[in-house]
Design goal:
single chain; alpha/beta; Rossmann fold; 23% helix; 29% strand; binds zinc ion
């Protein structure tokens, strides 16, 4: 069997059996890193040729140090991370249940200054911090191929300590942000430091505090189900992508 080099960080709420679509669990690990414990990560066998790491992920303030997540992924041989998150719509054109591809972000979490660069044991080259796209165009294209017409969005990464105020929602919008996300930053910049590809997909689960708050109509559940259906094909396409223009 080939090495699994893709990790799905799943930060959306799914029925327990939903991920069985990715094949049976053939390995499960909890990984102890210098930054604390990461996991459990499940290795799922999609086909005789292909396996994928899957990790349930949450932005609760009690969560693992994001560095532990990225460090563990690197140790397991992961080269690409697909982060699927739920988020709050700041841009008024976005509706609940809409998935968006993240193509840029604003880091606004208290973890945002987290870095591996201060730790000599990671052996990172400090000069690597060049300016490039934080999100992988090839993985973005694979998502577009499977879910055509998805809008690209700018996320602002915040901590899940409390909901935004109306004033904050207006401020984030004035900064050009489309969605609030709790699980994307600083993971994306940490992955970049580790020379891993990163892609972010956010399913809109609610509206910012300065907007009307209509009652849910089941549109999030329906949308999550559609996205789950495309995951096996996504893993296949990404496994056949050997070179990335993102430089990872
Ligand atoms: Zn890439």
């Amino acid at each position: 069997m080939k090495n699994a080099n893709l990790l799905l960080l799943i930060a959306v709420l799914l029925p327990p059996s939903a991920l069985d679509i990715l094949g049976e669990v053939i390995d499960e690990r909890t990984y102890l890193t210098p930054y604390g414990e990461a996991g459990p990560l499940a290795l799922r066998q999609l086909s005789s040729e292909l396996a994928v790491w899957v990790q349930p992920y949450t932005g609760l303030p009690t969560r693992t140090d994001p560095r532990a997540t990225i460090f563990a992924a690197r140790q397991l041989g992961v080269e690409r991370i697909f982060n699927w998150d739920m988020g709050i719509a700041i841009n008024p054109v976005l509706q609940r249940g809409q998935p968006v591809i993240i193509d840029d972000y604003i880091g606004w979490t208290h973890h945002q200054s987290d870095t591996f660069f201060s730790d000599a044991h990671t052996g990172l080259d400090i000069n690597y911090g060049s300016v490039r796209s934080p999100f992988c165009p090839e993985m973005g294209a694979a998502i577009q191929q499977l879910l055509p017409g998805l809008p690209e969005a700018i996320a602002v990464g915040v901590d899940f300590l409390r909901r935004e105020t109306r004033a904050e929602a207006r401020m984030f919008r004035s900064w050009g942000a489309d969605v609030l996300s709790y699980n994307l930053a600083p993971e994306v910049s940490l992955a970049q430091e580790m020379k891993m590809c990163y892609a972010g997909l956010v399913t809109i689960s609610g509206y910012a505090a300065d907007r009307a708050q209509p009652a849910p109509m089941g549109e999030v559940r329906a949308s999550l189900s559609t996205t789950v259906q495309m995951l096996p094909a996504f893993v296949e396409i990404v496994s056949q992508t050997h070179h990335c223009s993102c430089g990872a």
